[in-house]
Amino acid sequence: MSDYITRTGVYLCQGCGIGDAVSVDALEQIASTELKVPICRRHDFLCSNEGRALIDADLVGGDVNQPIVAACSPRAMTDRFTFDGATAVRANLREQVAWSQPAGEEDTQMLADDNLRMAIAQATETLPASAEPEGEYSRTLLVLGAGTTGLTAALEAARTGYEVLLVEQQDHVGGWANKWSKTMPHLPPYRDPQANSTDELIAATEAEPAITILTGALVTKTEGGPGKFTVTIELGDESRTEHVGAIVVATGWRPYDAGKLSHLGYGQSTDVVTGVELEEMLGEGPLQRKSDDKPAKTVVFVQCAGSLDPDHLPYCSSVCCGVSIKQALQIIRADPGANVYILFQELRTPGTAEEFYRQAQEAGIVFIKGKVRSVSADLGLVYDDMLLGEEVSLQNPDLVVLATGMVPNSTNPHIDPAETGADQLVSDVNPNAPLPLAIRVIDNNDDKSKSEPGENTEAVNGGAAAEPVLPGGALLNLQYVQGPHIPILTDGFSDSHYLCFPYETRRTGIYTCGPVRRPMNMAEAAEDAAGAALKAIQAIEGAARGAAMHPRVGDLSFPKFGLDICTKCRRCTIECPFGAIEEDERQFPILIESRCRRCGTCMGACPVRTISFDNYSPHMVSEMIAAIEVPDEFSEKPRILIFACENDAYPALDMAGLNRYQYSAFVRIIPVRCLGSINLLWISTALEKGFDGIMLMGCKSGDDYQCHYIKGSGLAKERLSKVGETLKSLMLEEERVTLEEVSIADSGRIPEVINGFVETIEAIGFNPFKGF
Amino acid sequence: MATPLPDSSQKYDLGFARWVYENVKGGDQLSMCMQCGACSGSCPIGTDMDHGPRKLIMMIRAGMKDTVLRSNTLWNCTSCYRCTVRCPRGIPVTSIVQGLAAKAVSLGYADEVVTSRFARSFWWSVTHFGRTDERLVTAKFYFSFGLAEGIKRGLGNLKIALDLILKGRMHLGLPHKVSDTGGLQAILEKAAEIEARDQLGEDKS
Fold first, then answer.
1. Which residues pair with A670 in a beta bridge?
2. What is the ipTM of this complex?
3. Is the pTM of this model over 0.90?
């Protein structure tokens, strides 16, 4: 591409109030006279057919290959300003000038002028992005785990026309759902337990020719990236290698080990059972006590058994309430004379489960809000009644059911942790935070502990108390420099952007769904499975085109590494949130393109600034900063530079304009892919240039992050904390550079944030480097 | 005849709760209560109650028979119906409280309750004269506490009574009556008959 010549052309729009707010003549002057852009045209409505034809004519004629559209926000009219073979650079004159500044004022004009200058600088430094994917791309999906989630994912993908390899560790498919006597209702009116349809799901999956089911199979190694994963699978003594395009992880859950709940009577009496054990008892006919085969007439469900408890599972599994309601209804329907109590701390019946709860109340099941203190060997139950405000004892029910929570199978408890780098399973959003207990618990007795309660109790208790050990080996055993695991966030659940793209893990092309992602019931898991299968299909298709996955869907650019000056500092390798960068034998970084999400976190990390995209680079943004005119200190006009994350902060700024909120005209806004892509070079460039203050505006970081690239904003915060000292050594105030967390819904707060910062800067005074 | 009150010795023995379901109007809705507390939060005199309506319902479920039937909640309820209107589960809370009050009277739990005494005096006047005679209702109420207490209370209100008479607000002489007291008695007898018949019908079902 070195012989590529950029031919820019500026297209000015006068519509939507732009022509009233600023002098378009002056803007034209800047483009053609000051910056010598060869072609500069204007139109009253650039997005009209006529306006668009104006640009098309120049593109077709070959006079322009890089149009600069000075009109609305780059987020608006994207379909109108997308051209064959050219991507328009946009100067935002509408939302961030005409709609957020008073019309006809000098400062408004200066802002518009600078926005145009920045866009021209950006266009000059932009090369068209192109991807040239090489080699064979597999269109097969690997689905790991054949429970409800895995079977559904496989079926959905196969019916969409993709080959599926369904790998199950056990010797049969169906998972836990095989054991359920009935299931919670997922069809209207959501009031009665439903027949378990797992057999039908299994039959449908087995009948699907596009699905290959491997049972008794274990994935022992995974290499490559989206479109090109190479997976080693062990089938007994045989080992086979498969090429797959994307991976859906549906390894599900296991019940919390009730052996640790001896204070609730588990292990002391055979008439204290877990919810999972009760399922089997309900499937066997009339409910009988295990101890003496007498019918169970009075049954007490203990909710949150080991949940919401810092010593056990600190979280709520959300499903157990619905399951206990289902079981209670089954009991009372079979024997209307039965006394059924549900002792809950917080009854959680999300969505349609509320209807189910009503049904249970109508059926006469008694709900009691209370925290159980103890259950004795003779089933004497003592609890704190939260509504009566006193301690109550329930004497001798026939059966006590412990509703234990869900533990995610984000690691494989059947594999020796040491074998696959268990030490690397850390929450690297906050590497120093202690790992929650849920995943430190030894629980390598998964299936047996369910059917033979108490068998392993002693060993488990002893081991866990002495020294916490990771629960198992890596599911896929990824051969990544960043470690073999799929990263987790808290409580052992896999990390993903919880609200916006829940199935995306931090390993591109690998999608988690079902209870390994968060606790959920079968209906939710099936929905999750369909979602993850579709994401996996998108990954396959995107990888084959060399295009990015969410959130920069379709982006063809990717970071390029100038290895000639690379110092092998490894920061890009370590800080890439998606594990997209590997190292060669000399420890130079190698990009696995299909894993890359194009956030630019590597670019922000590189101390020698040798990582850049064709259309986004340290140099490009430096040029944009340089293009801004900074008035001298006698003008009384400070200049504030804002780097705004394009995912949340930039839209919030646009929406502030849409709402006609006015804010200081002294700010100059540069959109960035993620705060993580901000190279500290830009901050020093801006300060040298004479900017009085710099604000990084982006998503929330931390455990409840909103960052679309998970670690980007956290890394920016971390990096920024080190800028303070540099500033001090330059005799500059630390307050000149700040980071503001802004969500997409924060447009109302924008004026306050911006004006507040401008006031702070005005109080500190002008940048002493101004004019040097 | 009401179903005999069950004797519950243990918390959450459902005997009492089921008795309420069957014998108190609206009681069959009790199981639907989800203890959100909208009723107690809405109650204008909740602060003057031993237990708010939410807790009362919980205590019924918990089988706390004596506490429930002796609770002043039954008597302090002003029947404003806010709880009933606001209950998200549509439970007729006011009806249940009134029904429990009636049961408390018939089962002898309310003999000493002031409100209950007053209600009995009121009922006496209405059934005898078809009218409320304030003098007689007050006197009957006062003397229900005993002779000495009745005189004491009566004297305490002497000045008010004299003022009322002087201003012509309280009449002297025989109590006002409906013209057809025989008809009134017939109505009351018929009402009693209907009540007994309904009770019998419910018992049969």
1. A643
2. 0.75
3. no
